[in-house]
Amino acid sequence: MLDPNFIRENKEVVAKGVQKRGGSQSLTEDFIKTDESWRNLITEVEGLRADKNKLGKDDREESKKLKERIKEIEDKLKDIENKRIEFLSKIPNVPEERAPVGKDEEENVAIREVGKPTKFSFDAKSYLDLAHNMIDIEKAAEVSGSRFAYIMGDLVLLEFALVRFVFDKLSKYGFVPVVPPTLIKSDVMRKMGKTKFIEEGDAFYVSEDDLYLVGTAEDTIGPLHMNQTLGKEDLPIRYVGFSSAFRREAGSYGKDAGGILRVHQFDKVEMFSFTEPTKSIEENDFLLERQEDIMKDLGLPYQVVHICTGDMGFTATNQFDIETWIPSEGRYRETHSCSNTTDYQARGLNIKFNPGDGEKTEYVHMLNATGLAIGRTLIAIIENYQTKDGNIMVPRALKKYVGKKEIKGLQASN
């Protein structure tokens, strides 16, 4: 969440930020009004407590009246505090000045293209045609329902080759490998700023245990330093995590439902950084560079897109996406995201930074970036590295991990 003091002192900036994202300025007004009422009640109840403490033993009647009045105000205070927190949680992060202003994905800005879209001298196939012997959607539907898949055979080797490749590559930059939990307490999920993810019905919920399945490894890597104060010598802290992730994909019924592009369960490698407040913009650019290094090593054509204010993540102040060329569709599709959430998540999680030298303690800044969305990267590799005879060449960077130069695709079932 945003700093309440920042909202009070910068009402117009926050309201403009909400407006840039396509939200209503009443969000800010609702919080300001509720916050003012909340602070007035606190002042009143503290005054009454002070008056009660001044009373002597002979002022029992007056003490009783004050006690009843204090109880009455405290009850009001609980209700208004809940409303205050609710309004605060609905105010998104304020966009950076460099973030392009726009209402939706149509107004995102392509910054650059790297590599030329793949062209073939033969009729190219889709990934489902090429790898149908290694992707079993039909059996998964019988077992688990729609939007699930069995990944099998050499495609599994390719998946874990991708994971090891990224882990090895990022370790050179001090990223600490982590396999985080895939279930998270509901209050911690909200502290991560994932209220919108929950309220839009995109999160899977285990009601008996009050736990959510993570929508990305970010959800449980972020709280790793919850309720801690980090020193200047500790930062930056960088993690690279691998986990399965789960999303209902609410609102996308029927869209991309026939394959593994948009599924309920998928595997993902995630980068996550904790930085000094003055260095998060620099870290945002650093994480994007790491993403591009990965893509260049894999030899996949892609474009970098600056996400506009109306399309960026709720907790983000700036966001870049990488979109990879998918030959069967003749277009780029999103495979990576890279976001700076500044202190928005850190405030909810109470992760602070002590700069030393007697300076005031602040909240750290937190950033997340996709290392690889495995399913989408598999699609891109299968299609961009297909051969005329229906097989799939293994990218050079992955050969030592897969242990072969080529994966048998379409021809294996003929």
Automatic annotation (TrEMBL):
ATP binds at residues 247-249, 263-266, 334-337. Its EC number is 6.1.1.11. One of its GO terms (biological process) is seryl-tRNA aminoacylation. The keyword Nucleotide-binding applies. GO terms for molecular function: ATP binding; serine-tRNA ligase activity. Keywords: Aminoacyl-tRNA synthetase, ATP-binding, Coiled coil, Cytoplasm, Ligase, Nucleotide-binding, Protein biosynthesis. Pathway: Aminoacyl-tRNA biosynthesis; selenocysteinyl-tRNA(Sec) biosynthesis; L-seryl-tRNA(Sec) from L-serine and tRNA(Sec): step 1/1. One of its GO terms (cellular component) is cytoplasm. Residues 162-395 form the Aminoacyl-transfer RNA synthetases class-II family profile domain. It is an enzyme of class 6 (ligase). InterPro entries: aa-tRNA-synt_IIb, aa-tRNA-synth_II, aa-tRNA-synth_II/BPL/LPL, Ser-tRNA-ligase_type_1, Ser-tRNA-synth_1_N, SerRS_1_N_sf, SerRS_core, tRNA-bd_arm. The keyword Thylakoid does not apply. It catalyses: tRNA(Sec) + L-serine + ATP = L-seryl-tRNA(Sec) + AMP + diphosphate + H(+); tRNA(Ser) + L-serine + ATP = L-seryl-tRNA(Ser) + AMP + diphosphate + H(+). Its main location: cytoplasm. It is found in: Cytoplasm. The record marks 370 as: Important for serine binding. Belongs to the class-II aminoacyl-tRNA synthetase family. Type-1 seryl-tRNA synthetase subfamily. This is Serine--tRNA ligase. It comes from Candidatus Colwellbacteria bacterium CG10_big_fil_rev_8_21_14_0_10_41_28. The lineage of its organism: Bacteria, Candidatus Colwelliibacteriota.
